Amino acid sequence: MRKPKLPPSSPDDTEAAFYDALQHADIERLMACWTDEDDIVCVHPGGPRLVGHAAVRSAFEAMFANGSVQAFPEKVRRLEAGACSVHSVVERVAVMSDDGLQHAWVVATNVYTKTAQGWRMVAHHASPGLRTEPVEVLTNQPVLH
């Protein structure tokens, strides 16, 4: 059993705790990363928008019923503004298949806010997985959707 930690002193601390909880299928530690506000939002790859603690918890419990999620945040880009921090990450997800260990990549956005209890997650939005590592496009030209 892990010993309790001090409140996260940075968005990076909360992000590390979130991914560690995923990798250990620890629902209590994972939910402790989220703010206490009930308007939290989570979107899993290809899934619906989940709003509120009950919906978010239920979705992660269903995921953990199949085991832990071996997702590792890479290529983190941070935008911090006061009590809000937005992280764009490329998640490298290890998946066991008939061909052995495979990797998939998911582009995700994690949003954190500073609370009296430390930095907490308010949103996690993940894209459908890719078989190859996504290319990062850097440009000064405007991009239209």
Taken together, the total number of domains comes to 1
**Number of extended strands:** 6
Strand portion, in percent? 35-45%
Rounded to an integer, what's the Rg over CA atoms?
Answer: 16 Å
Shape: globular
**Estimated helix fraction:** 10-25%
Strand order of the largest sheet: 2-1-6-5-4-3
Number of helices: 3
Describe the overall structure.
- There is one protein chain.
- A six-stranded mixed beta sheet has the order 2-1-6-5-4-3.
- It has three helices and six strands, in the order ααββαββββ.
- The protein has a single domain, classed as Nuclear Transport Factor 2, Chain: A.
- The mean pLDDT is 87.
- It is globular and about 45 Å long.
- The protein is an alpha+beta fold and 145 residues long.
Q: Descriptors for this entry?
A:
3 helices, 6-stranded mixed sheet, single chain, 145 residues, alpha+beta, Nuclear Transport Factor 2, Chain: A
Question: How would you briefly describe this protein structure?
Answer:
With 145 residues, the protein is an alpha+beta fold. The protein has one domain: Nuclear Transport Factor 2, Chain: A (Roll), CATH 3.10.450.
Furnish the topology, listing elements before pairings:
Elements: H1 11-23, H2 27-32, E1 41-43, E2 49-51, H3 53-64, E3 71-81, E4 84-97, E5 100-115, E6 118-126
Parallel strand pairs: 1-6
Antiparallel strand pairs: 1-2, 3-4, 4-5, 5-6
